[in-house]
Amino acid sequence: SQGLVAFAGGIAAVLLVLALTWRRGLEPVSVMLAGMMVALTASSVSAALILANGDYLFSLFIWGGGSLVQQDWEPTIALTIRLAAGAVAALMLLRPLTILGLDDASARGLGVARHSSRFLIIALAVWMATSVAAEVGVIGFVGLAAPALATLSGARTLRQKLIAAPLIGAVMLWLTDGLVQLAAGSGGERIPTGAGTALLGGPLLLWLLPRLRLFEWPHLGSKGAAPRKASRPWLIILLLFALALVAAIVALVVGRGPDGWSIARGDLLTDLAAWRAPRIGVAAAAGAMLAAAGVVIQRVTGNPLASPEVLGVGTGAGAGLTAVLMVSATADLGWQLAGSALGSLVALIAMLALAARAKFGAERLLLAGIAMSALCSAAITATIAMGNAQSYILLRWLSGSTGQASALDAGLALACLLPLTLPLFLAARWLDILPLGSDSARGLGVPVAGGRLMLIIVAALLTALAAMVVGPLSFVGLIAPHLARLVGFSRARVHLAGAMLLGALLMIVSDWLSRMAAFPYELPAGLFASLLGGPYLVYLLAKGVPRQG
Q1: Nearest 5 degrees, angle CA 124-CA 125-CA 131?
Q2: What are phi and psi of 381, to 5 degrees?
Q3: Taking a C-beta distance cutoff of 8 angstroms, is the pair 351, 319 a contact?
């Protein structure tokens, strides 16, 4: 049944996460990052499957958005029984839960078996979460917002939080469901309540952000062997440029047709270039922009697994596009681009305003971006689930399709690439020093708050422009900086140049393969890049993340 399949998928995901982080002692940060990688990979696979099964497209989106529409009381009774069992199990694990809130050395000193305790606690959490997903779909943001509200409401001990958080979560979801039905009227059953929780929870987290006492984001690369350094980095840069150029030429002239593989030449090449060249240009520019943004975000935050997605600006472009399409389903490309640009700008201003209260601390930048991304994604998901004409446009954008790229798109993206990336090369010293941490950077004369502000603005603009033309291809911003580091680019200037070329190369190859792999059908290039990059990132996490710098 659907419930068993969802439960099996959740169990498989958590087992993979545990396998990736077992050697690290199930450290909370490692578990969180592994979960993020597995979730992004699973999202890419599910999106590809959804696009390949159009008959079930919108029913899957409604389920994935968390629809509470039910035919009888059976799901309610089943979830009530599981809630009671989960509450009893949580009370039995109260002491290990409390002690594991301390550092690992203290936990060992108090006689708690870290591995087995963490395994049991994670298994319990996964069982309860997948139980909900199996019955009503994915409900977003409640698990994040309810504990935070419980803490702010005065719950101090873990026992108090375990009692307060479920009650607050229940009220949040009940209130959201009521508001969704009021807003949608008779069509309310087609709007997923789970997406609505993010519409309420996103602003809630943004409001809570200045009031939360946050940790300093761990510099994950501070341990382990130093990354290898290329002896002749600029020679490798030239080789990468040549490789990207060759890939672009191959993508332009080599293709498949009804008679098999062919190499276009003469008049045929002229005809094909009219639609192949723009998508190659858009793919290359978008890949380079997202790679540059990824380098900046990873170095500014000191987190080697951060990506342009955490800015929330890419999904802000989608929210702006959604607003334009809701006003007019027949809006032309110019209006769609204008809406995307305005959405990106609003998301950027909101994120920077919130992060400014913490002098642009890395941890608040990340949380502000995540909250903004969840808020905008909820609006997009709710619109797609309606199943109207706008839904197909948004789905095409969300999946990162380059199939309708025009010469105007390619010209705009390529023309903006140099002026937006030049300031990053000029600020290479800041990018070299910021990964050392705020105190060290300040001691070396770097204006930490101002430097982070300038760099994040440029990264956000790069992300927004790339998202406007090809959708939120965040995996490219994760993969390309890592590949550049593995090649041996450690200093910021060569790291940036190498990542941009690798990002362009990755997107050119992904665009070409997306056309060739399942001819005459075509996968969106963004999804294809995610399907290629997701397993690599999971492998990278299992192997160990190379440190920054």
Answers
A1: 90
A2: -60, -45
A3: no
| Fold of the domain built from segment(s) 235-543 | ABC transporter involved in vitamin B12 uptake, BtuC (1.10.3470)
Contact 9, 63 (CB under 8 A): no
Q: How far apart are CA 200 and CA 169, in angstroms?
A: 12
pLDDT in tens, 460-493: 888 888 887 777 766 788 888 988 988 888 888 9
Tokens 């955490």 sit at which residue?
310
Name residue, tokens 């009021």. Answer: 182
The tokens describing 401, both together, are 């399709």
| Residue (of 452, 455, 424) closest to 438 by Cα position | 452
Distance CA 340, CA 345 (A): 9
Calculate the dihedral angle through the C-alpha atoms of 192, 312, 29, 110, rounding to the nearest 10 degrees: -70
Q: Identify any residues that bridge with 256 across adjacent strands, giving them in sequence order.
A: 261
Express each pLDDT in 221-247 by its tens digit: 444 445 567 778 889 999 999 999 999
Q: 153-208: per-residue pLDDT in tens?
A: 888 888 898 999 999 999 988 888 888 778 766 554 456 777 777 777 777 766 76
* pTM score, whole prediction: 0.77
Place of tokens 């997923």: 192
Under a CB-based contact definition with an 8 Å cutoff, are residues 265 and 253 in contact?
yes
The domains of the chain are located at: 1-52+68-136, 140-213, 235-543
Q: In angstroms, rounded to a whole number, what is the distance separating the alpha carbons of residues 298 and 399?
A: 24
For residues 243 and 503, give the distance between their C-alpha atoms in angstroms, rounded to a whole number. Answer: 12
